[in-house]
Amino acid sequence: MTIFDALRADSGVVAVVGAGGKKTTLYALARRAARERSRRAVVTATVRIPVFDREVESVSVTDDPIVALERADSWPVGVVPEREGDRYLGYDRAVIDDIAAADIADLVLVKADGARTRELKAPNEREPQLPQSADTVLPIASVGAVGEPLSSEHVHRPERVAAITGRDRGDAIRPTDVARVLASERGGLKGIPDGATAVPLLNKVDDAERRAVAEEIGRELLERAPAVERVVLARMIADEPVVDVLEG
User: Fold this and answer.
1) Would you state the torsion angle of the CA atoms of residues 217, 220, 224, 226, taken in this order, to the nearest 10 degrees?
2) 123, 157 contact by CB (below 8 A)
3) For residue 123, how many other CB atoms are within 10 A of its CB?
4) What backbone torsions phi and psi does residue 227 show, to the nearest 5 degrees?
5) Count of structural domains within the chain
6) Per-residue pLDDT tens over the stretch 95-135
7) What's the whole-model pTM score?
């Protein structure tokens, strides 16, 4: 199964949330969409995103992304409203809806929250910033979080993860904790637009040991979240990123 089929990310608006591989997933999908499927893929965001010019053919910093996309002749491309230091700012969610409605790009890839390079997170009251036009939402967590302490070194917003899991700060993160966060409407499933499909992605499944951990997370996640039909196990930096697909 290709990564596009596994994640249900072949077309439309695909938003990534969570921690442990959002940007890697965005860029891998964008490059592969253009190279393998001749898709017009665009990378954008509704939140801050590190400068990503090297990951796409070009980036337009513009208040009118639709015009920029109409002029694009080599894909994938990026569109962002403003640069601030080493980061781009994100568009208002309604702008993403306008991009989707314009039907210029085949695949609109959106970073919809931040995690400061941590392995696991739960959103605050302002997150995620999901556009209503999202067709697929990918809640992401790194299998590498398991075994690490529930602390700010490894977890973004650890107090919120603690509230969802019932664990104390400093406790070792268990597979069940990751499953609970991803399955929670205060966690990975928060704010999913009506009609959108949530496909949780367990990233950094780098070896047999991590695969076993990911399978444990995925099975519990499917039990806890009836609306989730599948969980994808992956190593998004690999040439063949899909490790397995668990289905309920």
Assistant:
1) 100
2) yes
3) 24
4) -75, -15
5) 1
6) 999 999 999 999 999 999 999 999 999 999 999 999 999 99
7) 0.98
Structural domain that includes position 19: 3-40+108-247
Helix (H) or strand (E) holding 160: helix 158-165
- Residue 140 CA, distance from chain mean position: 5
Provide the 3-class DSSP secondary structure of residue 184: coil
Whole-Å CA distances, 105 to 5, 24, 44, 52, 84 = 18, 20, 12, 18, 26
CA distances from 72 to 1, 78, 105, 136 (A): 30, 10, 10, 24
What is the rounded distance in angstroms from the CA atom of residue 58 to the CA atom of residue 42? 10
Domain-located, residue 188: yes
pLDDT in tens, 146-181: 999 999 999 999 999 999 999 999 999 999 999 999
CATH number, position 158: 3.40.50
Whether residue 125 is contained in a domain is answered as yes
Give SS3 for 72: coil
Q: What are the Cα distances from residue 54, in Å, to 29, 57, 82, 239?
A: 14, 8, 17, 18
Residue 63 lies in a domain: no
Instruction: Flag whether 71 is in a domain.
Output: no
Residue 103 φ/ψ region, left for φ over 0, alpha for ψ in the -120 to 50 degree band, beta for the rest = left
Structure tokens at 50: 């590190």
